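User: Quick sanity check before I run a bigger batch. Here is a single chain. Can you write out its predicted 3D structure?
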Amino acid sequence: MNVKWTKYNSLELLMITLGCAIYAFSLDMISIPNGLADGGLSGITLIVRYFLHINPGVSTLVLNIPLILIGFRYLGKRVMFYTLYGTICLSVFLLLWSKQTFIAPLPLKHDLVLSSLAAGVLSGLGIGLVFRYNGTTGGSDIIARVGQMKFGMSSGKGILIMDYIVLFLSLSYLDFYHIMYSLIVSFVLARMIDLVQEGPDRAKALFIISDQYEEIAKLIDVTLSRGWTYLNAEGGYQNDEKKIIYLMIQPREVPQLKRLIRSVDDKAFVTVLDAHEVIGEGFSYQRKRYHVGLHKK
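Assistant: Done. Predicted structure follows.
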């Protein structure tokens, strides 16, 4: 089967490479010098490093072999090609950052709070970039992606669970003090992964049920310059027909919209939901410049 290679595929490999470089930098320049444990397979490689003195770049490559075989079964050929590429990239960068002499470890040794936050942000940024562009760095990333595809669990949550298990095992060589700071790393890392994967286009989805739906819709159009959709519904108590207003707005617009709805119908039923990524007019495209209530029909 011929697979057409596109410019976007090249961008994916570039971003996977960048993500692996950032993640490896975080491990070699922050976590290891400051005695912080890591979760997942990377945490296991740090345990191996402590007891067997094997470079994480080497143990990462070896321990990934059985997990890559699992990935081939569930994730498909393209994802696993990216996984092989990401695994090799991570191993190479772990070796490079540990052997290079022109950059010293970040001077955070006397402040474990800053070290934990920096390690969590950088590691999460690196892994998040890899995930966003359809790759993994092997290890627990593979299990997290399988969980995401098969069970709908977010990648950050899946990695966080596995991190806690590995951090418990890390008590074999680290004291409780450093493990607690490592928990901060894992929490920040998981949140950062989800943030990078979901993108910056967060919004709020609203469902508005009111008998004065037309007046509310016109005010939304004129005041917020937002489009909306009418959904047909039926009341559960009286079986009467209802119109539900469905729209997406920026989080900062929620208080203004609540005041607007209350000014028309203080008994309106409103549901506000989180939308992690929105693509369309007013968000990823230019917002419309006309108003339904003002243009000629």
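The mean pLDDT is 81.

User: Great, the batch can go ahead then.
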